[in-house]
Amino acid sequence: MGKIAETGHAKNVANFKALTAQVSEMGARYNPSADSIRLSALTTRGIQADQVMSALIKAGSLADNTTNKRIEQFAKISKLITRISATLKMARVSPETMDDAAGFIAKLRGKRRGKPADTSLPSPSSSTIAEPVHHPTTKSVSQRSFDMQQAAFGELVAFIEAQPHYKSNDAALTKEGLNDFLVGLDAANTEAIVVNNTYRQAQQTRNMELYDRQNGLFTIVSEVKAYLKSLPDGINSPDYKNAVKFQFKSFY
Q1: pLDDT of residue 134
Q2: Of 69, 94, 150, 226, which one has the greatest count of Cβ atoms within 10 A?
Q3: Per-chain mean pLDDT for the chain
Q4: What is residue 77's three-state secondary structure?
Q5: Please, which contacts does 151-155 make with residues 24 or more away whose CB atoms are closer than 8 Å?
Q6: Among 152, 160, 142, which Cα is nearest to 185's?
Q7: What is the pLDDT of residues 145-154, one digit of tens each?
Q8: How buried is 89 (Cβ within 10 angstroms: 0-12 exposed, 13-18 middle, 19+ buried)?
């Protein structure tokens, strides 16, 4: 679900509050027997909806930021593994060792051995941040790609650590430096996972607040309009005609 739907959710909340304002102006003429649609209840629900939407916006912004940081961190792998390969060659390791290293590097570049080289790393999309799946049962393709890159780089680091002649005066290329980089990958990946889970939970809270069939705002709006329709002038009353102008769309 994209940005249009996200805008629609906010429009629904705005229309709910506008409907609440309208029935408030009716004064004593608005006197439903159902507690759920009394003016005090509508006012409270409007406040709750604002809080839920605000929390969702904050969670989404944080998810965007952490996902971008993860993408930036993982993008460094491509250049780093090229430098690792060159450092191995300078260490004059055996052809067999270079061939083994090439296998790890091929995995990181997203290619199979024996196939034409793909010089770029897979670039997991951050589009899932716009609207992650509401009830995920499996990891997204994007998340699997990050996990696989992290695991493959870990295998390469373990392989490098086992090479006694591998040395570098560049801190980033030392065995310690490579391990530090691996730790950074894990931190960026873990943070993104946690924050995106928080965002998905905020979405689910939003969906319950707005679209729950028993007590969501969508249902409440329908009940308010039904009450106005039950008044003496029914569908011909100005109150009802004004109320139906405030549309509340369900996206589920």
Answers
A1: 38
A2: 150
A3: 87
A4: helix
A5: 152/104, 152/107, 152/108, 153/77, 153/81, 153/108, 153/181, 153/182, 153/185, 154/182, 155/104, 155/107
A6: 152
A7: 999 999 999 9
A8: exposed
> Are the C-beta atoms of 240 and 234 separated by less than 8 Å?
yes
Q: Which amino acid is at 92?
A: R
Tell me the CA distances in angstroms from 48 to 53, 200, 208, 211, 222, one per residue in order.
9, 18, 12, 14, 18
What is the Cα–Cα distance from 161 to 106, expressed in whole angstroms? Answer: 19
Q: What is the distance between the alpha carbons of residues 120 and 110, in angstroms, rounded to a whole number?
A: 8
Nearest CA to 34 out of 205, 208, 210, 219 is that of 219
How far is residue 115's CA from residue 118's CA, in Å, rounded to a whole number?
9
pLDDT digits (tens, 9 = 90+) for 185-207: 999 999 999 999 999 999 999 99
Question: How many whole angstroms separate alpha carbon 62 and alpha carbon 82?
Answer: 32
- Is 90 exceeded by the pLDDT of residue 105? yes
> What residue spans define the domains of the chain?
3-115+139-243
Q: How far apart are CA 77 and CA 181, in angstroms?
A: 9
Question: What does the alpha-carbon distance between residue 156 and residue 126 come to, in Å, rounded to a whole number?
Answer: 26
If you ran DSSP here, which 8-state letter would residue 59 be given?
A: H
- Match 């889970």 to its residue by tokens: 197
d(CA 190, CA 192): 5
Residue type, 88: L
Q: Helices 217-230 & 39-90, crossing angle to 10 degrees?
A: 160
Q: Tokens for 221, please give them.
A: 């709006």
Phi-psi sector, 249: left (phi>0), alpha (psi -120 to 50), beta:
beta
